[in-house]
Each structure stands twice: as structure tokens, then as C-alpha cells.
Amino acid sequence: MTSEVKEIFARERGPGGSASAPPAPAALAAKVRTLAPSMTRSMQRVAEAVANDPAGCAALTVTGLAELTGTSEATVVRTARLLGYPGYRDLRLALAGLAAQQQSGRAPAITTDIAVDDPIADVVAKLAYDEQQTLADTAAGLDTVQLGAAVTALASAGRTDVYGVGASGLVAQDLTQKLLRIGLIAHAHSDPHLAVTNAVQLRSGDVAIAITHSGSTGDVIEPLRVAFERGATTVAITGRPDSPVTQYADHVLTTSTARESELRPAAMSSRTGQLLVVDCLFVGVAQRTYESAAPALSASYEALAHRHRAGRKGP
Questions:
Q1: Quick check: 2 pLDDT over 50?
Q2: In sequence order, what are the residues at sequence separation of 6 or more whose Cβ sits closer than 8 angstroms to the Cβ of residue 7?
Q3: Structure pTM?
Q4: Each residue of 185-196: b (16+ CB within 10 Å) or e?
């Protein structure tokens, strides 16, 4: 082991040489998918190797994994730390645990790549598995402290503006209609000009939420920046925790970064994780405001009930 790697190992340890508890093995694949886009290419090779072959990599020393991926020992250790493990030894333990889970049959042996000639039954199975994986990855990587803070802000907000375009705009509409049904003031904005002109009116005590998978959508970042500068509490829901939108966010909620394919663009995979985060926000707010939320929700159901009964015959 080189002196550089020894220094990195030493820095990984806290006071007294102790290390914080590493993430659970099941969270490893989710971490790789979420963080890979922000890694250097050499670190990506290490991350992809451990995610694709946990059993094989668990058997390798730090030197062996560096040779396998064409990187350096220092890169391997830095990748382990970025994935949340105090050191390479901890990463190897997680890999061994993940390999054991896979060998036990708990991990489905199915690919999510969809070919143009796949039977429709295979398409259903592959999409269902991918949706499940996206939800599991998002749940594993979601910072519940940040989520709780966002819920607190929403529950007491005088007004909430939500920004999103394209598929993210649909998620923005979903969140606002949920908040409206429990008696809160909320607006979804997909028009960038309208979003900015509304953001100018926000003040301290209001909330602005930006939904963007890439984290670099200018039409979403601009109104969030304006809201941030006006003193509103700002929240970013994104698949890139180090993206430009986060510099104007008081709270960042990260969604899974699922793999794209020609027949399954990011707009599909990202929407699944975003909807989970939106539902978590809504349920959290409903819990905090239950005394007012429950009657408001009942009233909205009652107001629409006759529309659902209109087509029925008989008594």
C-alpha cells in the first residue's frame, strides 16, 4: 500500500481512530447510480465495477481493484469514501453482504434493458422491476433530516410555489393539487416568465420548490434563485445533489439516478422518484396539519362525490 493511500486511510478515521457506521449493503447500488454522474471518469470505473460485480470485487485488495479498473489505490479509496464508507475495508464488507443477498435469490435476475422486439409481457416485467428499483434507490438515498425540514416549512407556509418543466412539470402539478386539497395555498408554474414574476412576490415564510432531475434546467433555476433572494425557504428535488440548482436551495431532496435507454428516457425514470418524494412531502405536511387537513380533504371529497355518482343508475 502506498504512503498516499495510508494517509487517506488515516484521514478517514475520526478522533481516536474511530469511523462512522457505513451505509447498509443494500444502499450501495443506489449510491453508485446517484453519485456516478458527479464522479471523475476513473472513480466511475471503480464505482461501476463494485456495483456490477460485488462478489468479485469483495475478493480483491485495494491494489487488486485498482489494477482491475485501471486506476490507482488512492482513487479506489476516494471512491469508497464518496460512496459513504469510512475505508476500503468497509466497502469490501458491504460488497460481501450485497453478494450474499444476491446469491440468496432476493435480487431479481432480470435486466431492465428493453429491446424493440421484446414481447409486451417482458416489457411489463422489466418496467415494473425498474420502477421498483427506482423507488427503493430513492428511499435509500433520501435525507430524512432535509425532508423533515422541508415538511416543517411547507406546513407553516403562507404560500408555496412549485417550478418544473416537462415531466417535472407534471410532478409539480401533482404536488400542488395535493396541497390545495388539504387547504394550503399552492401554485405550479411551468411557464418560466410566470414563474419568475410570481417568485418576485415571495417573502420570508413562503416556500419555493424546484423540481429538476438534471439540476441544471435554467427555467427552473431562475425562479428558485429569485425566491431564494426574496427570503423564501427554497427546496430542490433533483437527481444531482451537486448540480447548479442546489446553490439556491435551503433543502435538497435527492432522487434516484436511474439508467437511461433509447426506449426509456430520463423523463420516465426520474418521474418515479420525484413522485415518491412529493408523496412523502404531502403525507408529512398532512400529519403536521392534521386538524385542518382532515376536514379540508373530506370537504374536497364531498364536493366531487356527485361527479363520481352521476353515471350510476338506480337508488
A1: no
A2: none
A3: 0.67
A4: ebbbbbebeebb
